[in-house]
Amino acid sequence: MTAPTFSAAPAPATATATATELPTALRDRAVWIFDLDNTLYPASCNLFAQVDRRINEFIAAHFNIGMDEARVRQKQFFRDYGTTLRGLMSEHDVDPVAYMDYVHDIDVTGVQPSAQLADALDRLPGRKIIYTNGSVRHAENVAGRLGIIDRFEAVFDITAAGYVPKPDPRPYASLVERHGVNPADACMVEDIARNLAPAHALGMTTVWVRGEQEYEKAGVGAGVHIDHTVDDLPSWLAAVAGL
C-alpha cells in the first residue's frame, strides 16, 4: 500500500501529536465525526457541482430570474448565512423540505465504492457519525453508493441541527448532547477548514481533508483549530486503523 500523505497543521509548541505519532495517537478515539461532501468521497466526483447547479435552478425558479442573477443571490446567501438554505428561510420563508428534496436530486453514480475506506472504518475503533449541512436522504444516497452507510450509527443533518448550518457553534453542541459525545475523546474530519473551529473549541481533535477551493481553505493558517491535515482520507484512516 502506498504510504498515506498526512501532516500536522500549524499548532502551538504544546501539541501532543505529530505526524509520525498520529496513527497510534488517534486509534482509540471513542467517537469519529465525519463531514460528508468532499470528505468521505473526493471532490473530483463533482457531486457538489451538481448540487450547486440545482441550488441556482431552484433560486431562479423561485424568484423568476435568470441563472446569472440566481448565482449572485446564492453566493450572497452563502456568505451571509453559511448556507443558501438558511438565507432563503430567513429572508423569504422558503420551505426547507422542498428545497432539500430539489437540490439533492442528483446523479451519484460518479461516486465509486471504496473498499479501502470501508475496511478502514471497520477496523477503526469507536462510534462513527456523519455530520452534514445536507439531508439524511442525501447522506444515505452517497454513503450507500460508497458502500459505507452501515458503518455509521447516525446521521446528524441540517434538520437535526434546526436548519442552523456549520460553522455556527450551536448545532455542534446539540450533536454532542444528543449523541452523548465526550469532545475530549472525539475526532472531527472536514474539508471546510472553518467548520473545524467550533469542534476545536469544544475540545475535539480536528482533521482537515485538504481542499483547493477558496471556501475550503478560508481560515487555514489564521489559527490553531486544525490539528492535522490529510490529502488522502482512505489511506490516512487505514494508517490510523493499523491496516
Automatic annotation (TrEMBL):
SUPFAM superfamilies: HAD-like. InterPro entries: HAD-like_sf, HAD-SF_hydro_IA, HAD_sf, Pyr-5-nucltdase. Pfam families: Hydrolase. PANTHER family: HALOACID DEHALOGENASE-LIKE HYDROLASE. This is Pyrimidine 5'-nucleotidase. It comes from Azospirillum humicireducens.
